[in-house]
Structures are given as structure tokens and as C-alpha cells.
Amino acid sequence: MRDLRTLQIPKVKDGIKFEHLCRDIWKNDSDNYDLVAFNGRPGQSQDGVDIFGREIDTKKWFGIQCKTRKESNKLEEKEIRKEVDNALRFNPSLEKYIFITTLDRDGGLQEIMRSINSDATVNFSFEILFWDDIEELLKKEENFNIYIQYYQSYFADNTTIGHSIGKLLNLDLGAGDSTDSHYELMVGKIPTYKDSKSYDADYYRGTYFIVNFHEKRMETFKLPCFESDLEMAFSNEYDRFRITKWLMSIENFDDFLFDVENSFKSFITIEESKECKKYIDALHEGKVTRKK
Predict the structure, then answer these.
(1) Each residue's pLDDT tens digit, 255-266
(2) How far is CA 198 from the centre of its chain?
(3) Domain range for residue 280?
(4) What is d(CA 281, CA 167) in angstroms, rounded to the nearest whole number?
(5) Which of 162, 84, 158 is nearest to 124 (CA)?
(6) Helix (H), strand (E) at residue 107
(7) How many domains does the chain have?
(8) Rounded distance, CA 217 to CA 232, Å?
(9) DSSP characters for 16-43?
(10) DSSP 219-281
(11) Parallel, antiparallel, or unpaired for β 125-129 and 94-101?
């Protein structure tokens, strides 16, 4: 899970983009809302509603009005009440009307919201959401795709700029159906960047790496990976065999590195375990040479 709680998300200044952002956030919540769409097109009468949708459970309709504002250009009660009056004409009748602004949360506007909700002539619940609320919605794990869509320029693409990327993970190894060894690892990639010159540090571009935190050892390898490629990272030959087998079981290594899953278990059969230990004993006795 990604933790965006401490991240400050820049406000959207363009009105059209802000409407699209709000539409996409509500449309993305498909467990609670359906039929989320823009109301008409620019130039048409919208009855105070930029976006409409329906609550799945109640089948009740809701409307959203979006307003981009600078802090120096505050919303006035007159403007808010005008939009509320317009929304009362929306067909079908709304159960909820949401006024969303890029302004910071404001006690005065919240007081206006409470006053409108106390007005007997207003037959829907009224809510004002501020940029603080939009930030909170964007920081939810389920809206991470929306955050990436609108703020992709804030992401450093490490594979493009040539920086290595690494994934911290827990790996439990076992034979049969029980585990017997645990490792805390980092597995990563050193991407190719522009024209690799294949000397000095550039020699390692296009390779993967694995760090064994238990022994404070690491090694680089290319795919396909062989047991002999990991000699510097793992002193235990039996585990080295099993870790190599696990690495080669990963279907798409790049997808694996970017996936959020970080706890893994890998098993070999009892027969494979016996064969591996038999080979290691023969290797130590000089009866066989190391496999490549």
C-alpha cells in the first residue's frame, strides 16, 4: 500500500480540468455510485449541476457543482445560494447536492452550508467540499489511479532517467508444504540508459540485483538467472538453489518490481530437496563440478 498522507497535492487551477478530476473521483467509486457523468455541455443550461450520478444502494440522484477559486477570490453566500436555487430545478429531483471548491476549508462557508441545510425550502442535503477534502480523496489507495492520471508529471520515471529501482520483500523458503528459512531481501533493476558504454559503472546497466540483509551481501545477475550467479549474495548453497528457482518462477520481472506485494513463499518438492542436497554433498566431495 502506498502512503500519501504527508504529500501536499497542488491545486488544480483550470476549471475544466477540475470538473474532470471531480467526475473521475466519483466515477471511480463504482461500489457506491453509478451513471456518473457530465451534465450537458458548455453553453447549455445546467441547473447548477456540472456532474450528476446515482447512489447504487438508494437509487437516489446527486449533483455536483465545481468551482475553482484563488484564496483572494472568496465565494460569497449569494453565489452559493444562486447555485442551490438552480439545483432545485434539476430533473429528477436531487437527494444530495455537493458544492466543490479549490478553496481551503473555511469556517464561514461551512456556516453557510449549515444554514442552507436548515432552510425548509431546500429539499436535498447540501454539502460544501474544499480542496482539503479532494486531497483526502486522492490520497486513498483506491484513487491512486486518479492521482497518477492527473499528477503524472510529479512522478520520477526511474527506468527512463537511468536510476536503479528496488523492492523490499520477505521471502520464506520451504520443501514440501512447510517453510524452514526466512530472508529479508531487496530485489531490483539497474536499467539501461541511453547509450550504455559497457565500462566502469555502466557495465552493470541492464542487470538486476539482489541484496541479502541477513548476511549483508549482494550480487548482480541477468536473466535467466543461475545458481552460480548468486554465490556472492547467499552462502547457503541449498537456499541459493531455492532462491534461484524462485527468481526464475517470476513471470514478468519488471511487473514484479512495481507490484505492491512484498511477502512471498516458495516451495520445492521433497524429491527436489533430496536431489539438491545430494548434489551439494557430491560437490563438496569433488565428485561433480558446479553447474552453470
Answers:
(1) 888 888 999 999
(2) 34
(3) 158-284
(4) 34
(5) 84
(6) helix 107-117
(7) 2
(8) 7
(9) HHHHHHHHHHHHH-TTTEEEEEE-S-TT
(10) EEE-SSP-GGGGTTT-S-HHHHHHHHHHHHH-S-HHHHHHSS--EEEEEE-HHHHHHHHHHHH
(11) parallel
**Residue type (1 letter), 183:** Y
Q: Is the pLDDT of residue 202 over 80?
A: no
How many angstroms separate the Cα of 243 from the Cα of each of 63, 76, 172? 55, 65, 10
Give the number of other CB atoms < 10 A from CB of residue 161: 9
83 and 164: one domain?
Answer: no
Strand partners, 127: 98
Cα R_g (the chain), whole angstroms:
29
Query: How far apart (Å, rounded) are the C-alpha atoms in residues 253 and 247?
Result: 9
The 10s digit of each residue's pLDDT in 22-74 is 999 999 999 999 999 999 876 677 888 999 999 999 999 999 999 999 888 88
Cell numbers representing residue 91 in the block: 430533473
Lowest mean pLDDT among 99-108, 184-193, 212-221, 227-236: 184-193
Residue 292 domain-assigned? no
Helix (H, G, I), strand (E, B) or coil at 176: coil
**290 within some domain:** no
| DSSP3 helix / strand / coil % (the chain, rounded to 5) | 35, 25, 40
Q: Are residues 218 and 243 in the same domain?
A: yes
